[in-house]
């Protein structure tokens, strides 16, 4: 029987650590990103996502650990293969969208045709406008286009949709999906769970500088949760109804809501009705990554 | 130290576009020196100043010298050079037999100083005056001032256009974005410098042309020589801007640049000659690139000097450039050290 082909590792991160003073912001982080994969680094603000990505970008020097690009130490040509979109970045003043792209494109040995990048990132309608006169969503697409203009093998996107309205966010997701289809490997940091679920093949959840869970979103949910999540409003942890539920159910509380994760929905609903609990505002849905994060850390993601 | 012209050019073009698309700073960089030319032209046409500088050979005292601001010279030749270039208005040498004096026939101020001296001698018949004439060109104050004004404008544009602009780019995060590209710090800094040199050439030629329209200056030396010292001066002052480029704060950079520019403006003979000031002041001025640029340009424009005559200024400016470039490039950093604040 022929041996299954090993996936090509584009980026290997091993035991990466970084401290600022007494504060250890990244603590022994390890993960792999394979060719054509979108890897999501999830966590709330302050989890260590940006510092991790800055160490990969070589902006910050790690205290310890190893970063390998295609199983080799990054050399001076590493930036040629890297596309980077920072959380926030400014561009040289008074340049138009096209001029910004040309400026960055010419810094690299290889590049994608400008029209291709403009079309992919949907910048055609304002390509002659100065970059400081376009909207937030358009600007993020421009920054993504700049990250793509050297036809990178590895794309590092640091919270690319933070601060965007839902429509602009979805717009950007579409662009990232197309980039994925083109076979690019992507490292995406985000604190939007929906975004991770929509875009990522693999995720790692970070908290206090450490990866506390990793795998594909489906695997992680199956491993950590029963089938569905029931949410109820106006609930308190000390209510009698929760004592009557079995140990199979996992229950979390947040902002006056109770989340019950169960694979026996009939039994849970029966017990709720028997206890006289009001079912007003009851919602039943599949467990998602946000539930997973809540379970693992006891924190809400969108802080 | 890697350098590729392909990576240098886009940064160079981006910087040039910023300059000519920023209409406010473009017009100000041209209008400011012209405004000064107009104002000073007006002010000095109305000038009725009777402060005359007399070069005194060896020593002198008594009523004959009381009307002048006396500056002692031991070497008559040096004093005559100063007189012919309008740094002095008259030279007086008192000997046991007579009082020799020299005036510049091309300077109205020098001729007035002669009248003043003759009036004093008339009041004291024992004084035997002996007149000597030194041929000189008539250089009005505005013509003397013009090279200094041009050099001063270069100083502002070079220091702030290079030093302050780099600090701003770092603070905004533009440099951080460049850092993750293959662009080297040398390519980035050279692009900033060359862009500024091109802009300074453009503004220098424009100011020269506009200045000529308002006031037809005489340039006794060669325009090519003038251009050479101008470019070398621009390069030295642009390199000086790199010294602050490591700073993180635009406010601190502005403060330090002002701290450097004001003494240079006062001590580089932009507005007035340092003849008569303390020796240490004149010595200190020689450590300022602006002084060498002003002096070199002034010698070419006002005295008809060639590059060989101003080789000390040329070498000094090149030396300053080298030192500033080495310090500036070795201290350069892409980021402002705030990594980790957004973990």
- What proportion strand of chain B? 5-15%
Structural class of chain B: alpha/beta
Evaluate the radius of gyration of chain B: 24 Å
Largest sheet of chain A: 6 strands, mixed
How far apart are the first and last residues' alpha carbons of chain B, in Å?
32 Å
Total of helices of chain A: 10
For the record, the count of structural domains of chain B works out to 2
Mean pLDDT of chain A: 86
Instruction: Provide the succession of SSEs of chain B.
Output: HHEEHEEHEHHHHHHHH
CATH-level-2 architecture of the largest domain in chain A: 3-Layer(aba) Sandwich
By DSSP, the count of extended strands of chain B is 5
Ends distance of chain A:
51 Å
Beta-strand percentage range of chain A: 25-35%
Task: Give an overview of the whole structure.
The complex is a heterodimer of chains A (303) and B (343). Chain A is α/β, with parallel strands linked by helices and 303 residues long. Chain A has 2 domains: 9-221, Rossmann fold, CATH 3.40.50.300; 226-286, Alpha-Beta Plaits, CATH 3.30.70. Chain A contains 10 helices and 13 strands. Chain A has a 6-stranded mixed β-sheet, sandwiched between helices. In chain A, strands 11-12-10-13 form a 4-stranded antiparallel β-sheet, covered by helices on one side. In chain A, strands 2-1-4 form a 3-stranded antiparallel β-sheet, covered by helices on one side. Chain A is globular and about 70 Å long. Chain B is α/β, with parallel strands linked by helices. Chain B folds into 2 domains: 5-42 and 141-331, no CATH class; 53-134, 2-Layer Sandwich (Alpha-Beta Plaits). Chain B is 62% helix and 8% strand. Chain B is built from 12 helices and 5 strands. Chain B has helices spanning 5-21, 23-45, 76-84, 108-123, 141-172, 174-179, 185-214, 223-241, 250-267, 279-285, 289-303, 311-331; strands spanning 53-57, 69-73, 90-94, 99-104, 129-134. In chain B, strands 2-1-3-4-5 form a 5-stranded mixed β-sheet, with helices on both faces. In chain B, helix 1 (5-21) runs parallel beside helix 7 (185-214). The interface between A and B is large, with 44 and 31 residues.
């Amino acid at each position: 029987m022929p041996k299954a082909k090993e996936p090509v590792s584009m980026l290997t991160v091993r035991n990466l650590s970084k401290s600022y003073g007494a504060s250890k912001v990244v603590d022994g982080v390890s993960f792999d990103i394979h060719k054509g994969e979108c890897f999501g680094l999830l966590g709330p603000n302050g989890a260590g996502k940006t510092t991790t990505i800055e160490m990969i970008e070589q902006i910050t020097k790690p205290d310890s650990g190893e970063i390998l690009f295609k199983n080799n130490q990054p050399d001076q040509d590493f930036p040629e293969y890297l596309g980077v979109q920072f959380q926030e970045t400014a561009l040289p003043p008074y340049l138009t969208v096209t001029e910004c792209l040309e400026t960055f494109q010419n810094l690299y040995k290889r590049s994608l045709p400008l029209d291709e990048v403009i079309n992919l990132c949907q910048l055609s309608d304002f390509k002659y406008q100065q970059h400081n006169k376009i909207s937030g969503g358009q600007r993020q697409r421009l920054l993504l286009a700049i990250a793509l203009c050297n036809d990178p093998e590895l794309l590092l996107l640091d919270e690319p949709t933070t601060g965007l309205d839902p429509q602009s966010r979805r717009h950007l997701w579409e662009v990232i999906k197309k980039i994925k289809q083109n076979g690019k490997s992507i490292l995406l940091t985000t604190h939007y769970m929906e975004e991770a679920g929509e875009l990522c093949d693999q995720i790692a959840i970070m908290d206090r500088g450490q990866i506390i869970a990793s795998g594909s979103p489906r695997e992680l949910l199956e491993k950590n949760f029963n089938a569905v999540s029931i949410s109820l409003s106006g609930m308190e942890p000390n209510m009698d109804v929760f004592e009557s539920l079995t140990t199979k159910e996992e229950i979390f509380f947040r902002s006056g809501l109770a989340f019950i994760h169960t694979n026996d929905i009939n039994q849970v609903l029966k017990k709720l009705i028997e206890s006289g609990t009001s079912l007003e505002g009851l919602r039943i849905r599949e467990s998602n990554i946000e539930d997973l994060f809540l379970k693992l850390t006891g924190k809400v993601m969108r802080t | 130290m890697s350098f590729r012209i392909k990576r240098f050019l886009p940064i160079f073009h981006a910087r040039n576009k910023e300059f000519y698309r920023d209409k406010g700073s473009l017009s100000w960089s041209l209008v400011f020196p012209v405004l000064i030319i107009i104002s000073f032209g007006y002010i000095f046409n109305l000038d009725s100043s009777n402060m005359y500088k007399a070069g005194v050979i060896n020593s002198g005292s008594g009523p004959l010298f009381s009307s002048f601001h006396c500056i002692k010279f031991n070497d008559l030749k040096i004093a005559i050079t100063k007189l012919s270039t309008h740094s002095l208005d008259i030279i007086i040498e008192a000997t046991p037999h007579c009082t020799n004096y020299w005036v510049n026939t091309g300077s109205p101020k020098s001729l007035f100083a002669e009248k003043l001296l003759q009036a004093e001698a008339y009041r004291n018949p024992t004084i035997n005056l002996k007149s000597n004439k030194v041929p000189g060109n008539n250089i009005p104050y505005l013509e003397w001032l013009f090279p200094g004004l041009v050099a001063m404008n270069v100083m502002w544009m070079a220091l702030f256009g290079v030093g302050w602009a780099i600090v701003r780019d770092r603070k905004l995060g533009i440099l951080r974005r460049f850092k993750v590209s293959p662009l080297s710090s040398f390519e980035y800094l050279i692009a900033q410098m060359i862009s500024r040199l091109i802009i300074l050439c453009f503004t220098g030629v424009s100011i020269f042309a506009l200045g000529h329209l308002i006031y037809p200056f005489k340039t006794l030396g060669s325009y090519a020589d003038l251009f050479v010292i101008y470019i070398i001066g621009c390069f030295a002052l642009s390199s000086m801007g790199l010294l602050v480029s490591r700073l993180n704060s635009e406010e601190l950079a502005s403060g330090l640049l002002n701290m450097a520019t004001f003494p240079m403006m006062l001590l580089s003979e932009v507005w007035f000659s340092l003849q008569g000031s303390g020796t240490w002041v004149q010595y200190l001025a020689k450590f300022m690139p602006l002084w060498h640029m002003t002096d070199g340009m002034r010698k070419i424009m006002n005295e008809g000097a060639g590059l060989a005559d101003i080789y000390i200024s040329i070498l000094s400016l090149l030396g300053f450039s080298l030192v500033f470039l080495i310090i500036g490039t070795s201290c350069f950093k892409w980021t402002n050290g705030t990594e980790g604040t957004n973990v």
